[in-house]
Design goal:
Length: 497
């Protein structure tokens, strides 16, 4: 059955999946949501006998109904291959009574790889399906991590190029090194003299520049974005929740129909929204546990019904969750408002002008699926240390925020259902914070690479390839421009005069 996508901001938008992937954001500024959430058409028992790629197909085909079987299987095979360092793609590891779903076995050792390794293939397939002959040029501004994950995903994908702008003095040395060593004949990395906002504004201006877009079109190109609100990033994230459940089922850890809890360390609300979709497809999930760090805007939202971004922004040791506007939450707001685009638009207007909104009691009643809480910096560090000391298993700071919140959930509710914790980054990606948590006095004086080796030794795991690459890979990108020259730089890269 064909599934169409609506905008969260007006009623007159109705597009296919491939159109939604190509556009990213609707013209009215809204996010695309499926008209309904499809149910599984194979049993969970059958899924438990399938590998990651097969599960991915069974889930994604229900959402991307205008892709042929061959097209979708091609995208999946090109994404979930040897770029991942394990055949399982997303292994489950049991420690201290919970199941850690390791989403960090891809090219940049963090969970963004799960979606960004398939998005380029979904995008180019969508372009061809819609008779778009132009090559796709991905423009991205990054403050560090997403840029690298997008570069790795798009590298050498036929019919695409990617240009990433970053603030030359505004990312960590490791993040910069990860980007400037990126291979691929279609990848471009540009440092700008300016901050992240300058980079972001420059990119936004180019997306909206009619003249530039016409020049691109004449040269056989068009811009697109790899933004986290793209439905082509959301749908692949549903897969691993289904995969995790069916692994537990397949190994006899749970019985058929048994409910589990899912804990997700949350920033932009994309990952946990995918879990919500999985639940609504029929996956037996009890609570969706939304874990925040000290930027606890979502915890406050779940406990009061008011979303309020007017607060101090805190820099934490889980930087990918340092977010005050969780853009994907808009999809949930739209859904619990009863697919009411007008009501949702009013909330979003209020967020824009006042920085806050309050949902209705009827809407709040529909948030029963969720439990929200947060971990302080101190609690996060303590969780890393105690899990390591009791089990030998080392988790990163983001995952530790989730593990800390899970402890609070259990003590608040006494609920002891089996629980999957989304493990969103390799501890090697945040080795300084992780090792500080374990024993600051001992590791404080070590260099970053000494820490990496020490972490490998104490956790008894191999240093991931992504980290080895930073040590040894040659610098391939050295373009730097002023923030006023971003457009000229893009034209030069694309050979447009
Ligand atoms: C992006 C990210 C998150 C937050 O995910 P959202 O989908 O934005 O909620 C959590 N942990 C890590 C390591 C991330 O990179």
């Amino acid at each position: 059955m064909a599934l169409y996508y609506r905008s969260t901001r007006s009623d007159d938008v109705r597009v296919t999946a491939s159109q939604a992937i190509l556009k990213g954001l609707a013209d009215d500024g809204g996010l695309y949501v499926p008209e309904n959430i499809p149910a599984f058409d194979v049993s969970l028992e059958e899924l438990s006998g399938m590998d990651y790629r097969q599960v991915a197909y069974e889930v994604m085909k229900l959402f991307l109904t205008d892709f042929t079987e061959e097209e979708l299987k091609n995208c999946i095979d090109n994404a979930y291959d040897s770029k991942f360092d394990t055949d399982e793609i997303a292994p489950l590891v049991k420690a201290d009574g919970a199941y850690y779903l390791e989403l960090f076995h891809g090219a940049t050792i963090a969970f963004k790889d799960m979606a960004l390794s398939i998005l380029p293939h979904l995008m180019i397939t969508s372009a061809r399906k819609n008779n778009i002959k132009n090559d796709i040029v991905i423009l991205t501004a990054t403050s560090g991590d997403t840029g690298k994950a997008a570069l790795a995903g798009f590298a050498d994908v036929e019919g695409t190029s990617i240009i990433v702008f970053y603030p030359k003095n505004g990312v960590s040395p490791i993040q910069e090194r990860q980007m400037v060593t990126q291979k691929g004949k279609n990848t471009y990395v540009v440092g700008i003299h300016g901050n992240f906002d300058d980079a972001q504004t420059g990119v936004k201006n180019m997306f909206g520049d009619k003249e530039l877009n016409a020049e691109l079109d004449a040269a056989g190109y068009q811009f697109s974005s790899a933004n986290s609100i793209n439905i082509g990033r959301l749908v692949p994230q549903i897969v691993y929740y289904v995969y995790a459940y069916t692994r537990l089922l397949g190994s006899g850890e749970i019985a058929a129909g048994e409910k589990i809890n899912v804990v997700v360390p949350t920033g932009n609300f994309g990952n946990i929204l995918a879990a919500y979709f999985a639940k609504n497809m029929g996956l037996p999930v009890n609570k969706l546990i939304c874990a925040s760090n000290e930027n606890k805007v979502l915890y406050d939202f779940f406990s009061t019904g008011t979303y309020d971004r007017n607060r101090e922004f805190v820099l934490t040791s889980s930087p990918s969750m340092d977010i005050l506007i969780s853009s994907n939450l808009e999809r949930l707001i739209y859904i619990i408002a009863g697919a009411d685009a007008k009501a949702n638009s009013e909330f979003m207007d209020s967020l824009k002008t006042e920085g806050r909104y309050t949902i209705t009691p009827q809407m709040r009643a529909k948030l029963d699926d969720f439990y929200g809480n947060y971990s302080s910096e101190e609690e996060t560090a303590r969780v890393i240390k105690s899990l390591y000391e009791s089990t030998g298993y080392v988790i990163d700071t983001h995952t530790a925020v989730a593990a800390g919140v899970y402890k609070k959930y259990v003590s608040d509710t006494g609920d002891n259902l089996k629980t999957v914790i989304a493990s969103t980054a390799s501890p090697f990606k945040f080795s300084r914070s992780v090792m500080d948590a374990i024993d600051k006095s001992r590791y404080d004086s070590m260099s970053d690479f000494e820490l990496v080796d020490e972490l490998a030794a104490i956790a008894n795991v191999k240093v991931p390839q992504a980290i080895e690459d930073i040590r040894t890979a040659p610098v391939l990108h050295d373009t730097v421009c002023d923030k006023t020259e971003m457009k000229a730089t893009v034209k030069k890269i694309l050979n447009i005069n």
